[in-house]
Amino acid sequence: MTPVLVFDIETIPDVAGIRALHGLPATLSDYEVAEFAFQQRRAAHGSDFLPHHLHRIVTISCVLRDASQFRVFSLSEPQIDERQIIQRFFDGIERYVPQIVSWNGGGFDLPVLHYRGLIHRVSAPRYWDMGEGGYGDSRDFKWNNYISRYHQRHLDLMDLLALYQPRANAPLDEMAKLMGYPGKLGMDGSAVWQAWQDGKADKIRDYCETDVVNTYLVYLGFERMRGHIDDAAHDAEVALVRDTLSRMDAPHWAAYLAAWPECERRE
């Protein structure tokens, strides 16, 4: 069984980077520095969504499914810093060489990881292997690697289901709910910066973990639709997810299960 690694990141403005790029005085608070960047962005682009390289990663949440386990875990600040978060994520790819799965990972998560990994001098040789004959490259990766958009080692579900047409993109929250799953609970990406300022790093982590489970459940539906698993295997895997979460002693999983009906939507 090829291991499957589903991932999602949560970010905040890179306040230190913004200070350095704009020469802002140390007397400005983190909030004021971020507001400066938001205002600059709104004036230039009509939106305060910062460019990818100015997002600092505070959490990567993952589902790892291999032959022996289904596991949900997070790499998060303040337990470890941004460099360690990114390095450990890529170390996992180096170790397991998994199928990685995301929702808009090609449009957001991975470009952020690329820029931030470059800034922090992270090493990720297996991830960047494109089978071009460099040191350690595998010929297999020429035809199926993590980087090329139409290869499958990275499966960006949002991008693929929309047939690579941005106007056809669907929100994960709505797709999960339409399929009978809980979707987002208590927070969305726009609330992360405020939660961070309020000292609620644990809430950001919990939100990210529920989102990555939503992605895994949608992925299971896709696997069934394309014939990689049958109905029985799909239902057994969904039951494994529910059972595993029920044995995890954390309030966000209790809330998630309470919002999850016993039978997901069926036609």
Features:
267 residues; alpha/beta; Nucleotidyltransferase, domain 5; 5-stranded mixed beta sheet; 48% helix
Would you write up a description of this structure?
- This protein is of the alpha/beta class and 267 residues long.
- It has one domain (4-258): 2-Layer Sandwich (Nucleotidyltransferase, domain 5), CATH 3.30.420.10.
- The chain is 48% helix and 14% strand.
- It has helices at residues 15-22, 30-45, 82-96, 105-119, 125-128, 140-143, 157-161, 172-178, 192-197, 201-225, 231-246, 251-258; strands spanning 4-13, 55-66, 69-76, 99-102, 154-156.
- The protein has a five-stranded mixed sheet with strand order 3-2-1-4-5, sandwiched between helices.
- α1 (15-22) packs across α2 (30-45), α8 packs across α10 (201-225) and α10 (201-225) runs antiparallel to α11 (231-246).
- The model has no long low-confidence stretch (mean pLDDT 94).
CATH topology, by name, is: Nucleotidyltransferase, domain 5
Please describe the biggest sheet, giving its number of strands, its sense, and whether it closes into a barrel. Answer: 5 strands, mixed
Helix/strand class: alpha/beta
Q: Numbering strands along the chain, what is their spatial order in the largest sheet?
A: 3-2-1-4-5
Q: Mean of the pLDDT scores?
A: 94
Helix content: 40-55%
How far is it from the N-terminal to the C-terminal residue, by CA? 30 Å
Q: Would you report the number of β strands?
A: 5
Can you tell me the residue ranges where pLDDT is under 50 for at least 5 consecutive residues? none
Alpha plus pi helix count: 12
Radius of gyration: 19 Å
Assign an overall shape: globular
Write down the domain tally: 1
Find the CATH superfamily. Answer: Ribonuclease H-like superfamily/Ribonuclease H
What is the annotated CATH architecture? 2-Layer Sandwich
The helix/strand order is: EHHEEHEHHHEHHHHHH
The CATH class label is Alpha Beta
Beta-strand portion reads 5-15%
